[in-house]
Specification:
It contains twelve helices and eight strands. It is of the alpha/beta class and 307 residues long. It has a five-stranded parallel β-sheet with strand order 5-4-6-7-8, sandwiched between helices. A three-stranded antiparallel β-sheet has the order 1-3-2.
Length: 307
């Protein structure tokens, strides 16, 4: 985006934040925020980078805070403010469920991360990932942070709040962080080996990265092949590692006919005692010979009870 493309009209600002143009004008007049910039053409425009801050303000208002107390605060301050009463907040449930609205403190945390994408702030974003990981643990980080963050990145790119570079930046930082964390967990693991990958032409890798965290966290040994692996090479890797379980992630972008064909081919090349575990929006309910998971929480539940 050019410098001027980073500025949007008050109507666009209202659409992106859910705050009416009337309210935005009142806030600007009374509190000096959001502050309009005057373009060379004379038109008034607002910085696109203020969208996460305004969304955070809106969530704080929904949580019961008075506008005069919060409208001037930045996203970091709002996140700290809302996290103070987090212990008394209702459980967030399973993040990512349709219609599920996250608690205010969680929503404002995601806004803080989105604001760092606008600035390409690698250091602060990664540091915040570490803090939330330490606070919530691996499963909590995935369900309450990683999943909603990825969902918001997709929504914001679609609404043109984020450009492609910002979308890639956020996804890659999260992917790299999660990879670092499961590898640390995996260093001394001596439990059963599980091979993780995706089928041919499946390039989406975030799902198996999340699965790798949970596999390593439960003491098993992760062998991570990455995405887009040929069927014969998956089968060979399982034999070489003497692994008895294969974990696949299948995204909504996968071709269902191709997926079923690859799964059938894979099943014929594997020993009968090898278990195939698979999840993702692209997995058909009719996948013979596969243990199917509808959600990452279900996968973790399986790992907890599986020997």
């Amino acid at each position: 985006m050019s410098e001027y493309e980073n500025n949007i009209s008050i109507g666009e600002l209202a659409e992106l934040t859910g705050i009416s143009t009337h309210t935005l004008r009142i806030w600007e007049k009374r509190y000096g925020f959001p502050k309009a910039e005057r373009l060379p053409s004379g038109h008034r425009r607002y910085p696109r980078g203020e969208v996460p801050r305004l969304r955070a303000v809106n969530r704080a208002l929904e949580a019961g805070f008075r506008v005069s107390k919060i409208v001037g605060k930045n996203v970091d301050d709002l996140e700290k403010l809302l996290s103070l009463d987090r212990a008394s907040a209702p459980s967030p449930g399973v993040s990512g469920e349709e219609g599920q609205k996250p608690p205010a403190h969680q929503a404002v945390l995601i806004e803080k991360w989105i604001s760092q994408l606008h600035l390409y702030n690698d250091q602060q974003l990664t540091q915040s990932f570490y803090e939330e990981w330490q606070d919530r643990g691996p499963l909590g980080f995935i369900l309450e942070c990683a999943v909603p963050f990825l969902n918001e990145i997709g929504h914001r790119w679609y609404s043109k709040e984020l450009n492609v570079a910002q979308e890639h930046f956020g996804s890659e930082r999260l992917y790299d962080f999660m990879g670092t964390m499961w590898r640390r967990l995996n260093e001394r693991n001596t439990g059963e080996t599980m091979v993780l990958t995706t089928l041919p032409e499946e390039i989406h890798r975030m799902g198996i990265q999340m699965c790798a965290i949970l596999v390593a966290w439960t003491g098993r040994r992760v062998v991570y092949l990455g995405p887009n692996t040929p069927v014969k090479d998956i089968a060979a890797a399982l034999g070489k590692c003497n692994a008895r379980q294969l974990v696949l992630s299948i995204s909504a972008a996968a071709d269902s006919n191709r997926t079923l064909g690859d799964l059938n081919a894979l099943r014929t090349q594997l020993k009968p005692e090898i278990t195939i575990l698979a999840g993702g929006a692209g997995l058909s309910e009719f996948a013979p010979g596969v243990i199917r998971f509808n959600h990452i929480q279900n996968f973790y539940d399986y790992l907890k009870i599986s020997p």
